[in-house]
Amino acid sequence: xxxxxxxxxxxxxxxxxxxxxxxxxxxxxxxxxxxxxxxxxxxxxxxxxxxxxxxxxxxxxxxxxxxxxxxxxxxxxxxxxxxxxxxxxxxxxxxxxxxxxxxxxxxxxxxxxxxxxxxxxxxxxxxxxxxxxxxxxxxxxxxxxxxxxxxxxxxxxxxxxxxxxxxxxxxxxxxxxxxxxxxxxxxxxxxxxxxxxxxxxxxxxxxxxxxxxxxxxxxxxxxxxxxxxxxxxxxxxxxxxxxxxxx
Length: 247
What we know:
Layout: H1 5-8, E1 10-15, H2 21-33, E2 38-42, H3 49-54, E3 63-66, E4 69-72, H4 74-84, H5 97-119, H6 127-154, H7 169-175, H8 178-188, H9 200-211, H10 222-233
Parallel strand pairs: 1-2
Antiparallel strand pairs: 1-3, 3-4
Helix pairs in contact: 2-4, 2-7, 5-6, 5-7, 8-10
Catalytic activity: RX + glutathione = an S-substituted glutathione + a halide anion + H(+)
Subcellular location: Cytoplasm, Cytosol
Organism: Triticum aestivum
């Protein structure tokens, strides 16, 4: 049974755009745990007093507020939910300490290396630099393909997800980017980053992930992401720009 938002005292501050990778990641985690919450959209360009008081260091979204206490950064929020509500819904983190460490490593790699390479394709006007970013992104997908194969060796013989037979931390960490990867590929005119011939395990995983509960109701439409990129982040994306905001 889903716990009430008032009972749990959960509030989620998110960007009003509805396309935030990191907010959607947290929403998926909350859905996995079966937790209700108050959804509080914010304008990142006009930060509320609540946001500034809840995240005075980075002043970024999303922020989870539980019983009046704020938790910041999406990966940290997901781990917090797993620890604060251990008896609710499915576990987000693997039970085995080694597999937890591996999931954390790859989640950080996706945020810090893989996605910056991908969005960097739209971040330069120089053809060679764009080509280099494409190669970096494809190489990252290759590494994640290997990680998915290795996760099968560590657990179930035929793992459906990085988390095994069910979704877990790394699935959410990577999966929330899927519409962005596709939208960036469309805009840049690159071949699909997820290619069944090059990374068959990962391509099959992406199909399962996109159709899984509770992901299917929360994953952003690719057209909406593409519109956000072209109208907000890169209205003239051919021109080299500084690193974009991710809210």
